[in-house]
Amino acid sequence: MSRFLPAAPHTTNEQHESTARRGRGALLARATQWWSRRQGHAPPAPDGTGAPLDPAGSALWRMRTTVRDEPGSLAALCTSLAHHRVDILSLQTHPLADGTVDEFLLRAPQELPAAELVRAATDAGGSDTWTERADAHDLVDAPTRILGLATRTALDAAELPLALRQLLGRCTIRSLPAQAAARDGAPAGFEDGVMRLRTPEGGLITVERPYLPFTPTEFARARALVELDARLGPRVPRRQDVLTLPEGNEITVRRAHPADLAAARALHERCSRRTLRMRYHGPVGDADRYLDHLLSPRYGRTLAARTASGRIVALGHLLWDGDETEIALLVEDDWQRRGIGSELLRRLVASAREARCASVYAVTQASNTGMVAAMRGLDLPLDYQVEEGTLVITARLDAAPAPSPLPREEAEQR
Predict the structure, then answer these.
(1) Which of 67, 244, 250, 297 has CB 3.0 to 4.6 Å from 158, enough for a Cys bridge?
(2) Which residues pair with 173 in a beta bridge?
(3) What is the mean pLDDT of residues 163-186?
(4) What is the mean pLDDT of the segment spanning 139-168?
(5) Domains of the chain, first to last
């Protein structure tokens, strides 16, 4: 995309009609070609030098604005931005019934406030303008980003909520199983800041983004990801790692899936009532009913630690809880205090960081010293909240160091 787009040249009525038929994309392409032939002829900077914008002294912004779908509207908007020395890095258009939503990735002078970007769009005829600071992740063009999200979804069913979150920006995503979705009765579709997507098993995925209404283009992209997930069916990566415990025993760690339900129930039977109560914070007899939810990749990721005989001795859960992320551990009594819980926790936190989660939280009891020690062992900033014996520990991941390579042997699951 060119750095600065010129004002639209004078055209006849017939040329205007031709431009309208070709659409807004053709206008942008013509401006880009103009720039490729005339680099160095950008509009002068406020200091009169005409110097291009220095990336080192700039900031990245995402901006959306609604404009009239008519010839010249895009050129006017680009010219208004160019007057403020704003570099347009990419553009997506979202057609509406009565206009077009233009979504820009911009590089602007560091000192230019968001209010000036909004004013520039408004002066050019834009309305309902929204701005947000962007980062290096947004520099990938839209088709490449969407293909990457589709690939991640194809490889792992647990990636669907994360793919939707990265596709749609800051939003709250909730999954309802089939029975709850039937009671909800809401049809698939979108309205303002709420999107509803039906899953193949009859469930419902609800996406809420009240600060920015959804567009038909976004709904079509999200629905395509859900349909891809439906066609591929249940799937979990088959990789597993072999770990050597301090006493020399070897265990394997891999992703759990619904087929592990019987082994997970057997783990519950071997755990003491105190261990189950520490994990589930409710009647011990109800523990088994959580397993269907916990082992489904639709709601998060679960890691299972197995002995050489195939017995599950620990489970670690990373759960997508709306716009937050919960983390939980269950380790069989005879295998506690051997570092298994800490290892599972470290891996789950790495997955949360990969998913660009800002934080994770664990709900436990104040007397659960093992979980407290494991969270402290992450070496991350922690927040503690205690109420009537329930302890909520939140770890901020934005301060987490990059994970180091694991000196462990990786093997394929039999």
Answers:
(1) 297
(2) 207, 322
(3) 80
(4) 85
(5) 13-138 (3.30.70.260), 142-232 (no CATH), 239-412 (3.40.630.30)
